[in-house]
Amino acid sequence: MNFLWPQFLWPHLLWLLLILPLLVLLHLWLLRRKQQNAVRYASLSLIREALGSGNSFRRHIPPLLFLWAIAAMLLAAARPVAVIALPSNGQTILLAMDVSGSMRATDVLPSRIVAAQTAAKAFLAQLPRQVKVGIVAFAGSAQVAQIPTLNREDLVSAIDRFQLQRGTAIGNGLVLSLATLFPDAGIDLGQMGYGNNGSNLGNGGRPRGMALEQSQTQDGKEKKPFIPVAPGSYASAAIILLTDGQRTTGVDSLEAAKLAADRGVRVYTVGIGTVNGETIGFEGWSMRVRLDEETLKAIATKTQADYFYAGTAADLQKVYEHLSSRLTVEKKETEVSALLALIAAALALLSAGLSLWWFNRIM
Predict the structure, then answer these.
(1) In the chain, which residues have pLDDT < 70?
(2) pLDDT digits (tens, 9 = 90+) for 295-324
(3) 65, 354 contact by CB (below 8 A)
(4) Residues sharing a CB contact under 8 Å with residue 317, sequence separation 6 or more, in sequence order
(5) Among residues 238, 226, 289, 292, which one has the least CA distance to residue 264?
(6) Cα–Cα distance between 154 and 157 in angstroms, integer?
(7) Among 4, 39, 91, 186, which has the highest number of CB atoms less than 10 A from its own CB?
(8) Between the CA of residue 158 and those of 95, 97, 116, 181, 290, what are the distances in Å?
(9) Alpha-carbon span 146 to 84, nearest angstrom
């Protein structure tokens, strides 16, 4: 549990820390008084020899620990607040997974699709049970394979049902993921254009007169204008995009990334396969598939997330493990008075225990 230097809700109580130097002076005065009383004994050297040289150092440790305990209690009274990394509650993760024909390539053993399925299922097993996960599968089109759920068995079944198809519509996978995360936002994939490689194109790769953000709902009524937020600012959900190739159809990938960035959703991109590409055969035709790292990096950068390259099944497994630890914690501003009170109690008990052990008395 890491936290930064705290702020205080009741900072005026920090003046109480001035008590600490007074306590130090009181302790020194008591020690001096004891030394003066010891002079009354007939032979002070015999007393010092009986006490031993180590006791002169030990006698300062219990009071010092008790002083720290008082300091911790006074800090707790000022109600410190710190930004702490805590387990996330109520978070949703969308897995947008490529199921295009190129995923049958075997440069990642036993194949790209099998490695992706295995890593995704291991990822689900590592996630806290309170994290919802949904799955969007995309090839030439995109579909919701499993709506966000806490049921890990349903998610595993959806992953096992993947069927490879032609085409790679990365943008469609992102847009459908956003529509799944924000079902009331009016994000309609069916009304969006196919980008530079498709038909039905108008201005800038969209149907004529149709913006990526629709200004009307399906019943024709005006909806509230959408106000973009800061990229990466939405902490309740994230998208993990896994693909092995270039976009060949569908919504432009970077336009879809901007849609995610405007809603503050981070898109972590994972590239699987070889960067130089590989020629594969599928249903009587062959094609060369190449990983478009440049676009995947741009998607991650635009949404304030990260890009990961997975050249082997082991690499992919490590990527998912890293994402699991990153996405299941969130930083919150939390009062840490209880933590300081616990530290104070531990120091006080240690001080009393050492004093009893060494001197058979409590300070």
Answers:
(1) 1-6, 35-57, 84-90, 193-224, 276-289, 328-332, 361-363
(2) 999 999 999 999 999 988 899 999 998 888
(3) yes
(4) 118, 119, 122
(5) 238
(6) 5
(7) 91
(8) 11, 11, 13, 18, 27
(9) 33
- Measured in degrees and rounded to the nearest 5, phi and psi for residue 268 equal -85, 120
* Structure-block tokens of residue 295: 């676009």
**Superfamily in which the 89-327 domain is placed by CATH:** von Willebrand factor, type A domain (3.40.50.410)
Helix (H) or strand (E) holding 24, with range, is helix 19-38
Q: Percent of the chain scored above 70 by pLDDT? A: 74
Q: With 0.85 as the threshold, say if the pTM is over it.
A: no
Quickly list DSSP for 126-174: HS-TT-EEEEEEESSSEEEEEEEES-HHHHHHHHHT---BS---HHHHH
- Tell me the domain boundaries of the chain: 7-84+334-359, 89-327
The tokens for 143 are 């579909």
- CB distance 274 to 302 below 8 Å: no
Instruction: Give the pLDDT confidence score for residue 230 in this predicted structure.
Output: 94
How remote is the C-alpha of 143 from its chain's centroid?
A: 26
> What order do you get walking across the sheet with 7-8 strand by strand?
7-8, 80-87, 329-335
Please name which of 170, 119, 140 lies closest in space to residue 298, comparing C-alpha atoms. 170
CA–CA gap between residue 188 and residue 193 (Å, rounded) = 11
Distance CA 114, CA 44 (A): 83
Q: pLDDT by residue (tens digit) across 69-99?
A: 989 888 888 888 877 665 555 689 999 999 9
From residue 52, alpha-carbon distances to 17, 272, 358 in Å are 35, 70, 12
Closest CA to 237 of 168, 293, 179, 295: 179
